[in-house]
Amino acid sequence: MKNESHQERADRNFVELLQGARVAVTGVQVLFAFLLTVPFSTGFSRLDQADRWLYFAALLSAAFASICYIAPPAQHRVLFRQGRKETLVRRSNVYGILGALALAVSMTTSTMFVIDYLFDATLAWLAAGLLALLALWTWFGQPALDRSDTGSDGDEGSSHAQSSEGSPVSSSEE
């Protein structure tokens, strides 16, 4: 928005970050809840050490993703009316990226854990590798290419503005 103040932009950006996090946090919560119940099932005691470490990675990365996605609204409560919205927006963006990375790890390792239990390690590694590549490409690779796009094709990447840190950002995504 061209005629908004810095504070209005920070408010809008924070709301947009929270809206995006709402989608991811639901998935993290469901996955984390599932993972918390797994050790209490009867078959868990039969797992070998490799599968236990795989489970550990899935559980820990889901917990880490949960913390990252819950941090922005929690910090907003602590910093309420302190005039720190721009700091909170930048920090929340980092938490969102870290949360997405942790979610990709948790989804990948959880899927690998289940496929290894049901079938074999080879299929589990193949499926996990493909899922990891898909998540990395769709969540990070494509957007990174869009950021580096010069905007010559006339799409939304063509109207670049300078962010408060001086880096080019699309005015609709700032």
From TrEMBL:
Ranges for region Disordered: 147-174
Source domain of life: Bacteria
One matching Pfam family: DUF6328
Signal peptide range in chain numbering: none
TM ranges: 21-41, 53-72, 93-115, 121-140
Keyword field contains Transmembrane: yes
InterPro entries on file: DUF6328
Coiled-coil regions listed: none
Biased composition range(s): Low complexity: 163-174
Record key words, sorted: Membrane, Transmembrane, Transmembrane helix
Protein name, entry field: DUF6328 family protein
Organism: Nonomuraea salmonea
